[in-house]
Write a structure and sequence with these properties.
The chain has helices spanning 15-26, 33-42, 46-57, 63-74, 92-104, 119-133, 140-163, 176-189, and strands at 3-8, 30-32, 82-86, 111-116, 167-171. It is an alpha/beta fold. It has one domain (3-32, 76-189): P-loop containing nucleotide triphosphate hydrolases (Rossmann fold), CATH 3.40.50. It has a five-stranded parallel beta sheet with strand order 2-3-1-4-5, with helices on both faces. Bound molecules: adenosine monophosphate. Adenosine monophosphate binds at residues 11, 33-34, 37, 54-55, 58-61, 66, 87-88, 90, 94, 137, 146.
């Protein structure tokens, strides 16, 4: 089933994990700009060198660079019939970039899933992840910066998608399975996932 999805949520909302689960269930690739940047850093590529300091500070990589990376990824054959974007677009400029790219292909996003978790919950989940995974951008100061950027720059994109009638808020509190079930139900109600067998 074709589905062009975006999952949005503050850091620590579980969007990465839920994104992978939903993409697997729908048979579409999960495309995470954060993962692509981290892979580039680990691989020591030019892109990796360009973004290392930015990511360590928790700032946003410039739109031009980010949108170019996403355009290249979306041009791969596995994204021709659907995809789930995680972490892109992250501001209004990137929404415009993505609109331009998709409309050039005669496509548009089908649904924008907003995973909602209160700020305190995000912070406590991120602190836990910092201990478990040792991500360099999970320090207290960087976390505060990233959450501030989310509220200032990313949250406004939900207004734009809301006006288009394609934004759906999902309660991100609960077990992994509970949250996945809520997202799948939202997809089903819009005809974007097969009904679950009774
Ligand atoms: P994430 O794993 O989605 O939290 O992304 C990790 C970091 O990668 C972010 O804090 C940013 O520095 C960078 N990044 C990821 N996606 C984007 C984006 N769409 N625009 C700009 N920077 C991004």
């Amino acid at each position: 089933m074709t589905a062009r999805l975006l999952i949005v949520g503050p850091q620590g909302s579980g969007k990465g994990t839920q994104g992978i689960r939903i993409a697997q269930a729908a048979g579409i690739p999960a495309i995470s700009t954060g993962d692509m940047f981290r892979a580039a850093i680990a691989g020591g590529t030019d892109l990796g060198r360009q973004v290392t300091a930015i990511i360590e500070a928790g700032d946003l990589v410039p739109d031009e660079l980010t949108s170019a990376v996403v355009r290249e990824r979306l041009a791969q054959p596995d994204a021709a019939d659907g995809f789930l974007l995680d972490g892109y677009p992250r501001n209004l400029g990137q929404v415009a970039d993505l609109d331009e790219f998709l409309s050039g292909r005669g496509e548009q996003l089908d649904l924008v899933i907003e995973l909602r978790v209160p700020r305190e919950e995000s912070i406590s989940r991120l602190s836990l992840r910092a201990q478990e995974q040792g991500r360099t951008d999970d320090t207290e100061e960087v976390i505060a910066n990233r959450l501030g950027i989310y509220e200032r720059e990313t949250a406004p994109i939900l207004g734009v998608y809301g006006e288009r009638g394609i934004a759906q808020a999902i309660d991100g509190i609960g077990s992994l399975d509970e949250v996945t079930d809520r997202i799948v139900a939202a997809l089903q109600s819009r005809g974007l996932a097969r009904p679950t067998a009774a």
